[in-house]
Amino acid sequence: MPLLDRIAIDPEVAHGRPTVRGTRMRVGDVLALLAAGANEAEILGDYPYLTADDIKACLEYAAAQADHAILTAS
């Protein structure tokens, strides 16, 4: 399964914010944990319903969202 298939956006779950599919864990929450210095093992220990691939999917999703069109001077 491609990593991004692990991310779901459903208006009925987490007010439509991106979540790890099948959970209510928001992508933003996983990213905040990583930004605060939590490592993969700590996150998986605190949230046993997540997998290492779920964390990678959150990172891939964030990277895709941060990408933007290249602007050129005309």
UniProtKB/TrEMBL annotation:
Gene3D superfamilies: Winged helix-like DNA-binding domain superfamily/Winged helix DNA-binding domain. Pfam families: DUF433. It comes from the Bacteria. InterPro entries: DUF433 (IPR007367), Homeodomain-like_sf (IPR009057), WH-like_DNA-bd_sf (IPR036388). PANTHER family: SSL5025 PROTEIN, SSR2962 PROTEIN. This is DUF433 domain-containing protein. It comes from Flexivirga caeni.
